[in-house]
């Protein structure tokens, strides 16, 4: 998409998104896509979604400098409701981010106020990339620090805390898990659910907000808000809990060698992001297409057929990787990731890759550490492409070693400055598929 600005490309992506009109209601589509794990009254929610435009929200805490795949699920739920004509609020928690939602196992490390404020700004920018900022139902950003900072501790306890029962709070899943752990739970994190409940009450008062969405592991926090609105205002409010997405083998989704898949390209390169989706198992890929893309039911069912009948083509994985990478990083970055995948294995020109794409691709490979002038045989052994320098020399002699996809036949070959792409990088290959990266 040469010549197209990032803003224009984002507008084009949002403009192409549609809910699937083959479903009788939006609720039906959300259920088919596997986006509803738990909710308040399903019948009332379905009617609400089909009725006049209303305001709804989801909260994102700045406990890291970027959102991740779990947050992307919520952003796409927000977007689907926005496409229906409803009015989203994107809450980035400047106050709850200072506290931290209780984790099941251990207390969070509290970040400084300056760090949290910086991360609030970063996350707000990410939220607006996935929701339309134009029209009568444009997304509005809110920060819960705006209504919690002016409250004194006495006012908070009198006006909000009195509506919460400790016995009920102790039964919340996250709290119960921590109480039974060696770490226990601090009063600070114990109070988190009161803060989130108060958020919903304030948004109800300020914007007539009627619905909150979040992960099902947040259900206790979600219902703290609906209960508070009922007690204080005497009105019904709703909540939707999306399922925690796991792999078919039961392992946690969205983890790559222990690291979250972040939406920030500096924390997870578009190439790494693309490869994550491309490597989804056959047993998982259709569920991923339902949740993370706007492909229609008919298109997804066709991919389901292809997975069953022609799994070796990996057509569903390729489409999934393309769609989600373009959604998050843009079509140009998605194509760059595809080009890099091709080029690494000799089916494209490595020199044609831009530096950021090449750097992201090489970062995923085993690494050979050294400097200009290092013997190639030594680098091959160090990277693990061969077991020893002797084996490396034999592989070179047999014609099975490549530098930047060019075959090598000199057993004494060294890495020279001419080998360095963008002045820093080289790709080493043995055979057709064994790759390593070299960075000067």
UniProtKB/TrEMBL annotation:
Gene Ontology BP terms: tyrosyl-tRNA aminoacylation
Span of domain RNA-binding S4: 374-436
Location (main, coarse): cytoplasm
Keywords assigned by UniProt, alphabetized: Aminoacyl-tRNA synthetase, ATP-binding, Cytoplasm, Ligase, Nucleotide-binding, Protein biosynthesis, RNA-binding
Motif interval(s): 'HIGH' region: 62-71
Localization in the cell: Cytoplasm
Molecular function (Gene Ontology), one example: protein homodimerization activity
Residues the entry annotates as binding ATP: 255
Binding site for L-tyrosine: 57, 192, 196
GO cellular component annotations of the record: cytosol
Enzyme type, top EC level: ligase
Reaction it catalyzes: tRNA(Tyr) + L-tyrosine + ATP = L-tyrosyl-tRNA(Tyr) + AMP + diphosphate + H(+)
'KMSKS' region, short sequence motif: residues: 252-256
Listed EC numbers: 6.1.1.1
Similarity comment: Belongs to the class-I aminoacyl-tRNA synthetase family. TyrS type 1 subfamily.
Role this protein plays: Catalyzes the attachment of tyrosine to tRNA(Tyr) in a two-step reaction: tyrosine is first activated by ATP to form Tyr-AMP and then transferred to the acceptor end of tRNA(Tyr).
PANTHER family: TYROSINE--TRNA LIGASE, MITOCHONDRIAL (PTHR11766:SF0), TYROSYL-TRNA SYNTHETASE (PTHR11766)
HAMAP family assigned to the protein according to its UniProt record, in alphabetical order: Tyr_tRNA_synth_type1
Subunit structure: Homodimer.
Descriptive protein name: Tyrosine--tRNA ligase
Lineage summary: Bacteria, Bacillati, Actinomycetota, Actinomycetes, Micrococcales
Primary gene name: tyrS
């Amino acid at each position: 998409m040469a010549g197209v600005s990032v803003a224009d490309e984002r507008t084009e992506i949002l403009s192409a998104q549609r809910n699937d009109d083959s479903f009788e209601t939006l609720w039906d589509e959300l259920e088919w896509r596997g986006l509803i794990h738990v909710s308040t009254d399903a019948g009332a929610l379905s009617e609400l979604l089909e009725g006049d435009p209303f305001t709804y929200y989801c909260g994102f805490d700045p406990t890291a400098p970027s959102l991740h795949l779990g947050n992307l699920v919520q952003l796409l739920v927000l977007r689907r409701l926005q496409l229906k004509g409803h009015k989203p609020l994107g809450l980035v928690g400047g106050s709850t981010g200072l506290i931290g939602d209780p984790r099941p196992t251990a207390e969070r490390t509290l970040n400084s106020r300056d760090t949290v404020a910086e991360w609030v700004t970063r996350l707000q920018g990410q939220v607006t990339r996935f929701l339309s900022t134009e029209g009568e139902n444009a997304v509005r950003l809110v920060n819960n620090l705006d209504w919690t900072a002016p409250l004194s501790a006495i006012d908070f306890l009198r006006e909000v805390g009195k509506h919460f029962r400790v016995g009920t709070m102790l039964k919340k899943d996250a709290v119960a898990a921590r109480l039974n752990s060696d770490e226990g739970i601090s009063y600070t994190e114990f109070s988190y659910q009161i803060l989130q409940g108060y958020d919903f009450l304030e948004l109800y008062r300020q914007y007539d907000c009627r619905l909150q969405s979040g992960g099902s592991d947040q259900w206790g926090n979600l219902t703290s808000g609906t209960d508070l609105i009922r007690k204080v205002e005497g009105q019904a409010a709703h909540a939707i809990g999306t399922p925690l997405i796991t792999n078919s083998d039961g392992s946690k989704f969205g983890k790559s060698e222990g690291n979250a898949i972040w939406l920030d390209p500096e924390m997870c390169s578009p190439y790494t992001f693309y490869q994550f989706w491309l490597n989804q198992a056959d047993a998982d890929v259709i569920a991923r297409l339902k949740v993370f893309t706007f492909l229609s039911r008919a298109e997804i069912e066709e991919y389901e057929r292809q997975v069953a009948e022609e799994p070796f083509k990996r057509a569903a994985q390729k489409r999934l990787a393309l769609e989600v990478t373009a959604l998050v990083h843009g079509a140009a970055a998605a194509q760059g990731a595809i080009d890099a995948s091709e080029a690494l294995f000799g089916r494209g020109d490595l020199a044609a890759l831009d530096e950021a794409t090449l750097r992201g691709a090489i970062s995923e490979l085993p690494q050979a550490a050294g400097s200009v002038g290092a013997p190639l045989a030594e680098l091959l052994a160090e990277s693990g492409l061969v077991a020893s320098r002797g084996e490396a020399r034999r592989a070179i002699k047999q014609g099975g070693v490549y530098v930047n996809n060019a075959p090598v036949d000199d057993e004494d070959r060294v890495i020279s400055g001419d080998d360095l792409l963008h002045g820093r990088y080289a790709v080493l290959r043995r055979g057709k598929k064994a790759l390593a990266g070299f960075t000067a």
